[in-house]
Amino acid sequence: MEVELNVQDYFSESSLITGVDEETWQNWFSAWLETLQSNNSSAKSYELSLRLTDDAEIHSLNAQYRQQDKPTDVLAFAALEVNIPQSDEMLECLPLYLGDIVISVDTAQRQAKQQDHSLQIELAWLAAHGLLHLLGWDHPDDESLRRMLHQQTNLLETIGLAI
What we know:
Structural class: alpha/beta
Number of strands: 4
Strand order of the largest sheet: 1-2-4-3
Distance between the termini: 27 Å
Strand content: 15-25%
Oligomer: single chain
Radius of gyration: 15 Å
């Protein structure tokens, strides 16, 4: 399976700040999508984008798209409806575009400190959360949230990280 990942970096060299370079992001998303493949479509390849930004930009996006006038840690903009039909022919020749994930590195840094773990772990946690949203997961109630957080923990374990 192939994953086309477009990493957009608000910072000129966020890998120096975050400790996560583009190749690591690519490896993480590839491993996660491979792990989740049985729950997803039969696409041969996927495409998504990841934007690393600051609190000011994510605040603006959160206000514009969620009517929440505050910064947040991660936003996910899914490209597909969960049960949209896709032809096998289309899935064979084109990458399935999942959508966009936006993470505030500022908020991730604060949360990592509060949780007493590394920024790398927090970024992986948020990226996994965003990916699950792109794949149709949601958490409107406590039980849904519990299942989603459990799946995030599993995804981090697949890349050798633990919370």
